[in-house]
Amino acid sequence: MPSVDHSFVPLPPSGRTFVTERRVSIADCRPDGRMELDAVARFLQDAGNDDTDDAGMAELGLAWIARRAQIEVLQSAVARELLTLTTWCSGTGSRWAERRTTIRGEHGAHVEAAAVWVHIDAETGRPTPWGESFAASYLEATEGRTVDSKLRHPKRLPEDGDRNEMPWRFRRTDLDGFGHVNNTAYLAVIEEAFGEHAPEAMYVEVEWRKPSDAGEDLTVTEMFTDDGAQMWIRAGEEIRATILARPL
Question: Which range marks the domain in which residue 92 is found?
């Protein structure tokens, strides 16, 4: 599965950045005390929401859907560790934007992440330009950098290669306030696939293609190689999301 370029852009010299803190709870961790990937994704999403709230974007009724995300866990956070999250807009397209986030912890946790979010009309669900208010708050930090929203992972399962399959259902508790399976819930698939063998440091890509429903019968197809794992979350032949995960 081809990888997206994951060279993360550095903190900009000017423009809007937002800093917040979160403490890792016991419920965010694996049995070995390290923070789970889906919990990392929730923290990243929360930081983004806090930023847009602070910038007054929530009052404008802007709606965004996740297109793809890249997460590089250089050192896992641990239970009760206080994390500092710094986030900013690192690039834009005509109807989407990339959010960069750096996580640093008091005990050495270090995560770099980037996610492309598509701006949609809340009534029609169609992509729509993000408008002047967004530009006024966020464009300076991008330094004119443009990003695309194309999906890079193959749409179809490969015909060759050893694979494992496991049934999967998202739970009702995976639904968010909009009644959708939250995008962070998809990273629980990685935790289940690696189990107790999840590496300490890991690079992950997720691409979301179609929404899923709680209780829906899904299949996770996994292919493990020496370089890591590829995963397809699907309903029959329809691919809902794809994942690339490899140790660092």
Answer: 18-142
